[in-house]
Write a structure and sequence with these properties.
The complex is a heterodimer of chains A (about 290) and B (about 425). With about 290 residues, chain A is mainly alpha-helical. Chain A contains 13 helices and 1 strand; from the N terminus they run E-H-H-H-H-H-H-H-H-H-H-H-H-H. Chain A starts with 12 loop residues before the first strand and ends in a 7-residue tail after the last helix. Helices cover about 25% and strands about 35% of the residues of chain B. Chain B is globular. Chain B starts with a strand and ends in a 26-residue tail after the last strand. Classes of the chains: A mainly alpha (about 290), B alpha/beta (about 425).
């Protein structure tokens, strides 16, 4: 009896040492969409379990940060936010910045955080960073509603804030930011499995990044006060995202159209590099972590 | 025609020993440079075979080397081998957790591996939520899980706790739940890695039954890794024996187990250096009825122990031994406790021996498992297997129907009244 030689078409799949360079297997991700949903649900449901305030923490964190920023940067340091109440200005910036920074820090730990489960069972690894981005999006939306609440309060008290026709494009900006965080996070997570140094870099790097992303000041301020350092912020895609979203939410400042184009290109590039590195790493990271 | 569902071709897996540190970057750059020049990876040509106890030349080792085998649909295949033989690495490759260094694996169906105790469980979530989560991790859709939820809960036997966070579960309940989810998966290939050891006897029986059912009625292929040779022998039809990263045999389970047990260190004595500051069994030697490693059923059998004690007048020492059969199932047991019979009281070498006048054992291969412990503070100093010997029915008439294998573990002397 000669063993039947199955031709390659009958095999469901095959594992090889190296695969083609760019494989974002969207079909497989789609097959695992329920897992993505359940992971997101797990993240949201379990994060504040066994706490007294529970989901209220979603609100407390941005509110307290905004109050502190307002006292330190606006009252103490005297940064002007124009017609817009400083608290509202800060709340908008922090809500948006938080989404980016939590996407970045969350995804950059993908492999380390999931080493246990990745080491036991296969599922498309990209599900894990996607989970981070989506569950943070839910948190962001909750926080955005709080912002709208305060917006309504200040508006009814006669503050010079208003939506405008650009506001409808806010989701687009948020998606870009999510992809930027995801892309950067995937790059870092891929390298951090081998070189732990990056872990330390990201810890303080994200704080430094906040200072040069125009979170608590308008971009125009840095151009007028310290023009010789303005290039830092001009090359920073995150700064454009924050500036743009602020304009969309409160009609403050202006829309940097060229800046947004630049940001979109950077985001796409970083995301592609992120997927490439991530795919290379996911096959054998378990051996190095 | 064979219906082959899994085909492993020439797979090897190389690991780098030592720490991942500054040298890593240098090797990575070197590797990348060779790739750029389209040369072969310089580190793939080196590497020792994986023998953990010997000192190697290279810092690269082959955890697996040129593994080839095929599994047919509906087979239950066992995988056995000593610690470090490459079982876990092979499983990792089969369950797609990591990629092989060379070679390829072809699958004719979906694969799922049974997680170790509660991996992927979230302690804060309830049993039911974890069934969904774990099922999804293993590749099921929510709909599939929902349709089988009642069966899964019933099989796990955790109904009462199903709405309680799993962090309140006992470890046995964890495994029950994890196994239940996996058992109701519908992958064509199921990989199971020693999970049965944790559940109680009733659950183990249930799990074994389920595995058999999966393959005979469900047509599912099962790969089963275990150190428990008796589980391997009841469950599997063919068994793969790994040693130092290579396939030694892939044969009918009986033959494979026989080969595996004959591979065990065949020494009739055991020696090791004393551990500084700790009581140590430094030597164990057996004296069989026939001399060497051959023992006659109903013959005398003596075991001699040499225990090194760091201090004099140590109290509460306990020395015990088990005789294991070829499936590593203990068949005989005896012990000496200091508080009953003072033992190991003098500093340095203590000689102790134990003798069976008539050792009653079936024909087969046996070994000893030695335990050295202290009973008051409940410290176990040592537990190791040694001293291989074989029992023959010398001078005893073989019954006409032949000896039956594995019919019992031990029969003690006793009388029947009829």
């Amino acid at each position: 009896m000669s063993p039947k030689e199955n031709n390659s078409a009958t095999w469901l799949f095959e594992i090889k040492p190296k695969s083609s360079f760019f494989t974002l297997n969207l079909k497989e991700v789609w097959q695992y969409r329920d897992l993505l949903y359940l992971f997101v649900r797990r993240d949201i449901v379990t994060i504040y379990k066994q706490t007294i305030l529970g989901p209220l923490w979603y609100l407390i964190q941005p509110l307290f940060t905004s109050v502190t920023f307002t006292i330190v940067f606006n009252n103490l340091a005297g940064i002007s936010t124009g017609e817009v109440p400083p608290f509202l200005f800060n709340l908008a910036s922090i809500t948006i910045w938080n989404y980016f920074s939590s996407c970045l820090t969350g995804t950059s730990n993908t492999f380390a955080n999931n080493a246990g489960i990745f080491g036991k069972v296969y599922f498309p690894r990209i599900i894990a960073p996607l989970t981070v981005v989506i569950s943070n999006l839910v948190r962001f939306l909750i926080q955005l509603f709080i912002f709208f609440g305060f917006f309504a309060y200040f508006y009814s008290n006669g503050a010079q804030v208003a939506f405008n026709s650009w506001t409808v494009l806010l989701p687009f900006v948020i998606v870009i930011m999510g992809f930027l965080g995801l892309g950067l996070g995937m790059i870092i997570s891929s390298m951090v499995t081998k070189y732990r140094d990056l872990n330390y870099l990201i810890g303080f790097g994200i704080q430094l990044l906040m200072y040069v992303s125009g979170v608590f000041y308008p971009m125009s301020l840095i151009e007028s006060k310290v023009p010789e350092y303005a290039w830092i912020i001009r090359y920073n895609p995150v700064a454009y995202i924050i500036e743009t979203s602020r304009y969309m939410l409160m009609s403050v400042g202006e829309i940097p159209l060229n800046g947004m184009l630049y940001t979109t290109i950077v985001t796409i590039t970083i995301f592609i590099i992120g997927v490439l590195l991530f795919n290379r790493t996911e096959k054998s990271f378990i051996d190095t972590i | 025609m064979k219906d082959i569902i899994l085909k492993v071709e020439n797979i090897s897996k190389q690991y780098r020993l030592g720490l991942v540190g500054t040298g890593t970057l240098k090797h990575d750059i070197n590797r990348w440079w060779h790739k750029l020049l389209r040369k072969e990876d310089p580190y793939l040509m080196v590497g020792d075979s994986n023998d953990r106890s010997t000192k190697g030349e290279s810092e690269y080792v082959w955890a697996l080397k040129n593994i080839n085998f095929e599994v047919e649909r509906g087979e239950v295949v066992g995988i056995i081998g000593k610690n470090g033989a490459g079982k876990s690495t092979l499983l990792k490759l089969l369950s797609r957790v990591t990629a092989p260094t060379t070679g390829s694996i072809k699958f004719g169906g979906r694969v799922a591996s049974l997680l170790e105790v509660g991996t992927g469980f979230n302690g804060e979530m309830t049993g039911k939520e974890n069934i969904y989560l774990n099922g999804a991790i293993l590749g099921m859709t929510k709909k599939e899980i929902a349709s089988k939820l009642d069966e899964i809960i019933e099989f796990s036997g955790c109904e009462r706790y199903i709405d309680t966070p799993v962090k309140r579960y006992s470890s046995g309940m964890y495994v029950r739940l994890a196994f239940a989810v996996a058992a109701f998966l519908e992958p064509e290939i199921l990989i199971i890695d020693e999970v049965l050891a944790v559940g109680d006897a009733e659950f183990q029986k249930k799990a074994v039954g389920k595995i058999q059912d999966l393959s005979t009625n469900g047509g599912r292929t099962v790969l089963f890794v275990s150190h428990d040779l008796s589980a391997i022998s009841t469950l599997t039809s063919r068994t793969l024996v790994l040693s130092n990263g290579e396939v030694i045999a892939f044969d009918e389970t009986d033959k494979a187990i026989a080969l595996y047990s004959s591979m065990q260190t065949k020494n009739k004595s055991f020696t090791q250096d004393s551990v500084f500051d700790k009581p140590t069994v430094t030597n164990v030697e057996i004296f069989t009825s026939e001399g060497g490693t051959v023992q006659r059923n109903k013959g005398p059998f003596t075991i001699q122990f040499e225990v090194m004690m760091p201090n004099s007048n140590t109290q509460n020492m306990a020395l015990s031994f088990q005789v294991l059969n070829h499936l590593e199932v203990p068949v005989l047991y005896d012990y000496v406790f200091d508080y009953v019979t003072p033992v190991c009281r003098s500093k340095g070498k203590n000689l102790i021996s134990f003798t069976y006048d008539n050792l009653l054992l079936y024909r087969g291969n046996y070994s000893l498992r030695i335990h050295l412990a202290e009973t008051k503070n409940k410290i176990k100093f040592q537990e190791f297997d040694c001293c291989w010997f074989e029992v023959e029915m010398i001078g005893q008439k073989e019954p006409e129907w032949g000896w039956q294998k594995n019919v019992c573990q031990y029969i003690d002397k006793g009388n029947w009244k009829i």
